[in-house]
Design brief:
Blueprint lengths: L3 H9 L5 E6 L5 E7 L2 H7 L7 H6 L5 E6 L3 H15 L2 H5 L8 E4 L7 E4 L8 E3 L5 H14 L17 H4 L13 H15 L3 H17 L3 H16 L9 H10 L1 H8 L8 E10 L2 E11 L2 E2 L5 E4 L8 H13 L4
Antiparallel strand pairs: 1-2, 1-3, 4-5, 4-6, 7-8, 8-9, 8-10
Helix pairs in contact: 4-11, 8-9, 9-10
Amino acid sequence: MMERKLKEKLEKIPDTPGVYIMKDEKGQVIYVGKASSLSKRVKSYFTASSNLKNLVLTPQIKDIEVIPVYSESEALLLENRLIKEYQPKYNVNLKDGKSYPLVKITNEKFPSIQIVREEKKDDGIYFGPFTNVKLLKKLVRFLRRYFPIRNCKKKIDKISNVCTQYHIGLCSGPCAGKIGEEEYSKLVEGIISFFEGKYAQFEKKLKKWMEEAIERWDFETAQKLKERLFLLQKMKEKFPVREEEELVSYGKENVLVNLAEILNLPKIPNLIEGYDISNIGGDMAAGSKVAFKGGIPYKEGYRKFRIKTVDGIDDYGMLREVIRRRFDSEE
C-alpha cells in the first residue's frame, strides 16, 4: 500500500514537462525519467500494469522528487545529465536489454551525424545517452533541415552523385562537391552547439556570418543564414532555453518545489504571473502582466492592458479589471 507521504507528493505534481527522480528506502536514486506531463507519467507507475518496468521498479519506490522545466526538450537534457551523475541501476536494467542511443559526430573532413548504441574509442564526438530514440530521431531530422549535414557512412574521397537526402534538403551534398569544407564546418558547428546547449552563443556567430555575406553581396548565403537565425528565435518549444550548466543548477535548487512548500500550495507551480498598474495622476492608466514558466521568463505570456472601466486613481479597481480580463480570456 502506498505510504501517505508519497501519496501526498503525487497529488502536488504538476501537469507540466519535467524530470522525476525515484529513490529507495535508503534515499538512493534508483531511476531518473522525463515526461511531457509529470503528473500523468509518475502516477502511471502506481496504477495496475503488466509492464515489466513498473512491476520491478514500483515496489522499490519510497520517495519521489520532481523538477518542472520549461519544455520537454529541457527535460530531455536534464534527464541525460542526471542519469550520468547518479547512474541509477534501473535506468540500465529496465531498458529491454538495449543500451541508450547516443548522437555521434564523426571525425572526418565532412563529418556525418549518426544515432548509435555504443560509444566507441574513436575520435568521434558523442552526445547522450538519451532515453527516447523516437524523439531523438525527430530532433536530428529537424536540425538537419537547417544544418544539412550528411547522415551516411560513405567515405568521401572522390566526387560522386548526390543521393535522395540532398534532393529533400537534408544534406548539403559534400560527396558531389556541392559545398566546401569551411562552409560545411559551420553547419557541423551549429549541430554541435545544439547538443552542447550553447546555441545562444552560436546565434551571435550566425549574425556575424550573415552580415559578412551581405557585405560581399552574397545574398543567397545571407538568406540561408537568416533562415537559421529564424529557427533559433522560434525554437523554444523544440530545444532547451537554458544551457546545460544553468539547467543543472536550476534542477539542484528546485526553486518551484521549494516555493510550493514555503507557501503550502496544493500543486507545484510551473506558470507564475505577476501584475502591476501604472498611471499619471489617474490618467493614461495601464496594466501589465509578466510571466515565468518552468523557472524562467515566459515572454509569450507578457501582456499590456489599457484600463477601460476605471476612472481616477484606483489601483485596486484597475487591478481587478486586469485580472478579470485575464481570466475571461479577452486579452
